Protein 1
Amino acid sequence: MLYMQKGCYSCHGNKAEGVHKYPTLANRAKGFLAYKLKRFRSKHSDNQQQEMMIPFAVGLSDEDIENLTTFLYAFKEENLGKKYDDSFRIHGDGGS
Ligand code: HEC
């Protein structure tokens, strides 16, 4: 999954839920996310905080952005709700 391969999770969280100053990406409008990524890719940022995104966006192809934003937009809400349970997860979901 690109989101993991490209290291996005290290700032935006394993579940794209956002961490501290890093915005939530899960379930956000695809068009908006793509717009932002393309801006970062062309080295536009509106503030110093956003500069951090540029090195991660420059390597993305249009196809990568399409895949990433589709993934993020469709991110499962049920996964998001679990963010506070992280530390209690042992492994597996307990079977069926
Ligand atoms: C080094 C930390 C870091 C990494 C890694 C990172 N980001 Fe970000 N990202 C940020 C910061 C900081 C912002 C801007 C926050 C702000 O606007 O104040 C941001 C903003 C964004 C935004 C705009 C969201 C918004 O609400 O404006 C998108 C979309 C995004 N990142 C996607 C990604 C994707 C996809 C990846 C992986 C290719 C990635 N980011 C990797 C730190 C990171």
Protein 2
Amino acid sequence: MQAAIIISRPYLNLACYFSLRRKSGKLGSSNFLNQQNLMGIGLLVKGKWVNQPYSTKKTEGKFKRASSVFRNWIGGQSFPAEAHRYHLYVSYACPWAHRTLLFRYFKQLEKLITLTVVHPHMGDKGWSFGEEVDVVNNKKKLYEIYLLADPSYSGRVTVPVLWDKKTKTIVNNESAEIIRMFNSAFNHITGNQDDYYPVHLRDDIDKTNDFVYNNINNGVYKAGFATQQNVYDKEVKAVFNALDYIENTLAKQRYLLGNTITEADWRLFTTLLRFDPVYYTHFKCNLKRIADYPQLRNYLRDLYQKKHVHKSVNMSHIKEHYYTSHPHLNPSGIIPLGPHLDYDAPHDRDRFG
Ligand SMILES: N[C@@H](CCC(=O)N[C@@H](CS)C(=O)NCC(=O)O)C(=O)O
């Protein structure tokens, strides 16, 4: 009976379902399953934290990601590229934040741009620093950093965040832009000229990014957070159509844009890495695993084995975050033990040179 309720109107009836279970004594009083956690993640409204999960009420069961709010650029007069001035807040779990971690390593910015990693569990009041000390602002929760930048901020409190220690504000909280800045803004300081967004490939990179973002990076979220069967069906099919398309491309060339590794590869990488351990089960993207695609599984290993990439990957954080932070998807909070993955296994991509 209760299962029928949850299947017919899953999201709206969660609170009701759990309150019935609690009254009937079937639900323990563990920290994980308390009422606040059932409310899920929240956001800031005019500077006040409001417990409010992503709602699909007005979007016919579809998950719509909000746009990032802080969109300043390093390199101009307000935010010049300077060593030791900027700080990055990330989660190891988040695929968007993961991009910025990768570029911080690739572009030798570790000594110039300091780092704070949030706790893997995103619970009541969103991301927190857990045991990690926020050495820059000495706060406990990420939303407090947003309030330092704008005391009346309204919006989601997301990672990554690029913080300016000098003016004490958020420069930018959009990963796609942060990696572009990291790609070139500090070149004159580091001497590192590696370019993941070369001028002659920009149009193609932008088109590929759009395709990968809509169908794969954000596609898995649209499938996983859908609250209507027809929406889920459509989104999952879009994910796998896109993966099939890329599988085809990668049968002919080493990387997405040919033989040059670009930003587009790294943006795809962070989703592929999480696919089999998380999205396949947690977001129900289970028509195939990446391990079932001969090109994609080798491509994933190829990228994983590039210099610095290991340092950016924390699989236990990834799994802990997803499986414990979305109680509407995984009410028990149990983290699956498998699958056993070996991204260090040999790959066949050298055949393209
Ligand atoms: N557009 C943003 C998206 C960042 C994002 O959604 N991050 C997630 C973690 S994977 C988050 O912090 N979510 C918290 C929330 O939405 O409340 C970017 O790419 O930087």
